[in-house]
Design brief:
Low-confidence stretches of chain B: none
Distance between the termini of chain B: 36 Å
Strand content of chain B: over 45%
Mean pLDDT of chain A: 92
Mean pLDDT of chain B: 93
Shape of chain A: globular
Helix content of chain B: under 10%
Low-confidence stretches of chain A: none
Number of strands of chain B: 11
Oligomer: heterodimer
Radius of gyration of chain B: 14 Å
Distance between the termini of chain A: 41 Å
Helix content of chain A: under 10%
Strand content of chain A: over 45%
Shape of chain B: globular
Number of helices of chain A: 0
Largest sheet of chain A: 6 strands, mixed
Order of helices and strands of chain B: EEEEEEEEEEE
Radius of gyration of chain A: 14 Å
C-alpha cells in the first residue's frame, strides 16, 4: 500500500524567501501525487497534482512541484513567499488501479515572517 | 454553487451519545468521502461512497456508520461517541474515483469540530 512522508511538521521562512516543503512517497508503481493547502479554519483545497505527463507541475498561487521517480519525491516549491502563504500543506498519494484511495501525509505548517 | 457544505460547525457530545454529521454537495459528484483530521496524523479516511446506494469502509471506520440514499447527501453517524472520536471531520467529494485510480480533485467542506467529553 502507498504511504507518504512529509519531512518537517513546521517550516518557517521570511517573506520573499524560497519555500520548500518536502514530500516522499512509497509506492510499488508510479503513483498519482497531490498537494493540498488548508488555510486556518477552512477545508482543504487543491494546489496542484501530478497524474501523467510532464513531471514539473505548476499550481495555483505560484507554487510548483516536481515528480522525481528516482528519488520517490514530490517536493513543493515557491520562489518567493508571501504572508498569505501561511497555512498547512498536505501531500497526498494514490496508486493507479481500482480501489486505491488517497493517503495523506501528516502535514507541514508554513509560517511566513515579515 | 455552494460546493460541499457541512453541519454543524462545532459540536460537544458526552460519551455514549449519538449524533449525525451532515454533508451535502451540489456538484453532482459520484464520489463522496469522510475524513478525520488529528494533529500530526494528517487526514484519515473513515468511509466513502462511489455512488448512491454504495458505501465502503476506509482506514478508520470503527464507531461510524454512513449511508448514501441520494447523490447529494452523505451523512456520517457516530453510534456511541467516545473521547477518541474528538477530532475535526471533513467531508469531500469528487467527480469520480475511476477505474484507473484516484486522479480527480477532491473538494472539501469547511469541517465539523467535534469534542467528546
Amino acid at each position: 500500500a502507498q504511504s507518504v512522508t512529509q519531512l518537517g511538521s513546521h517550516v518557517s521562512v521570511s517573506e520573499g524567501a524560497l519555500v520548500l516543503l518536502r514530500c516522499n512517497y512509497s509506492s510499488s508503481v508510479p503513483p498519482y501525487l497531490f498537494w493540498y493547502v488548508q488555510y486556518p479554519n477552512q477545508g482543504l483545497q487543491l494546489l496542484l497534482k501530478y497524474t501523467t505527463g510532464a513531471t514539473l507541475v505548476k499550481g495555483i498561487n505560484g507554487f510548483e512541484a516536481e515528480f522525481k521517480k528516482s528519488e520517490t519525491s514530490f517536493h513543493l516549491t515557491k520562489p518567493s513567499a508571501h504572508m498569505s502563504d501561511a497555512a498547512e500543506y498536505f501531500c497526498a498519494v494514490s496508486d493507479p488501479g481500482v480501489n486505491n484511495d488517497m493517503r495523506f501525509g501528516a502535514g507541514t505548517r508554513l509560517t511566513v515572517k515579515p | 454553487n455552494a460546493g460541499v457544505t457541512q453541519t454543524p460547525k462545532f459540536q460537544v457530545l458526552k460519551t455514549g451519545q449519538s449524533m449525525t454529521l451532515q454533508c451535502a454537495q451540489d456538484m453532482n459528484h459520484e464520489y463522496m468521502s469522510w475524513y478525520r483530521q488529528d494533529p500530526g496524523m494528517g487526514l484519515r479516511l473513515i468511509h466513502y461512497s462511489v455512488g448512491a446506494g454504495i458505501t465502503d469502509q476506509g482506514e478508520v471506520p470503527n464507531g461510524y456508520n454512513v449511508s448514501r440514499s441520494t447523490t447529494e447527501d452523505f451523512p456520517l453517524r457516530l453510534l456511541s461517541a467516545a473521547p477518541s472520536q474528538t477530532s475535526v471531520y471533513f467531508c469531500a467529494s469528487s467527480y469520480s474515483r475511476g477505474l484507473a485510480g484516484f486522479q480527480e480533485t477532491q473538494y472539501f467542506g469547511p469541517g465539523t469540530r467535534l469534542l467528546v467529553l
